[in-house]
Amino acid sequence: MIPGLSALQRFAIGALAASLVMVLAWAFRLDHLRGSHLSELDAARRQLETSGASIATLQATLDEQNAQAMRRAIAFANAREQDAAAVAAADERAKAAEDRLATLRAFAANPSGNPECRAPDALLRALEGL
Q1: How far apart are alpha carbons 69 and 46 in whole angstroms?
Q2: How many Å apart are CA 44 and CA 85, to the nearest integer?
Q3: What does each C-alpha distance from 30 to 22, 24, 102 come to in angstroms?
Q4: In this structure, what is the dihedral angle of CA atoms 76, 78, 79, 83, given to the nearest 10 degrees?
Q5: Could you give phi then psi for residue 15, rounded to 5 degrees?
Q6: Which of 12, 22, 85, 96 lies at 20 to 30 Å from 111 by C-alpha?
Q7: Each residue of 77-94: pLDDT tens digit?
Q8: pTM of the predicted model as reported, rounded to 2 decimal places
Q9: What is the pLDDT of residue 29?
Q10: Using H for helix, E for strand and C for coil, what is the string for the chain?
């Protein structure tokens, strides 16, 4: 030790040295904790970047699927209109066929209105079910 120092001075120097050691130990501990927190923060940032990219990918996929659904809906509406037109045309053809059949039935049922032409019995039986 240093000669000429009183016991109180030696005690104060020892206490200061011990305090300095404790402060340095605490500083190293804080630096270690800070480094640990910074690495956790970096990991969280990377996770957020990955999540953000995943969300962007999901959003792009969802947008594409919505666009496909809209195209299918438009195609369905167009097909429905075409089907309605086809049904209307088929109804018109069916009406015309019914009119022709009614005319044939009238001729077949009333041979006196057409004395020159007598319908065969097989035709008359075939027309009965129509």
Answers
A1: 34
A2: 60
A3: 12, 10, 104
A4: 130
A5: -65, -40
A6: 96
A7: 999 999 989 999 999 988
A8: 0.43
A9: 86
A10: CCCCCCHHHHHHHHHHHHHHHHHHHHHHHHHHHHHHHHHHHHHHHHHHHHHHHHHHHHHHHHHHHHHHHHHHHHHHHHHHHHHHHHHHHHHHHHHHHHHHHHHHHHHHHCHHHCCCCCCCHHHHHHHHCC
- Which token pair is 21? 């050691």
Sign of the dihedral defined by the CA atoms of residues 112, 113, 116, 119, in that order:
negative
Question: Which pLDDT does position 47 carry in this prediction?
Answer: 85
Amino acid identity for residue 65 in this structure: Q
Residue type (1 letter), 54: S
Q: How far apart are CA 40 and CA 36, in angstroms?
A: 6
Closest CA to 97 of 119, 75, 130, 121: 130
What is the gyration radius of the CA atoms in the chain, in angstroms?
51
